[in-house]
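Worked example 2:
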Amino acid sequence: MDSDLALRLMTDMLLSAAKMSAPILLATLVVGLVISIVQVATQIQEMTLTFVPKLIVVIAVCLGLGSWMLSVAVELSKRMFEMAGTL
């Protein structure tokens, strides 16, 4: 295995990880921002007020986009095994 192939494998892995985590991270970012604005406006400083909605959104995103995330992971695995077969 040369360094070009190793770099390509690492790039593919990191891009797939970013693709799979982006929807969850963006959704929790938006929910956290909205909850923070509501907390500032109402002056309610309760820790569970931020945790529970984020948890619900993460579960909803995982249920909604879980099959797509799994297909990205399976596609990456297929490419990795195909490359491993050619070594």
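Residues 3-42 form the longest helix (40 residues). The mean pLDDT is 91.
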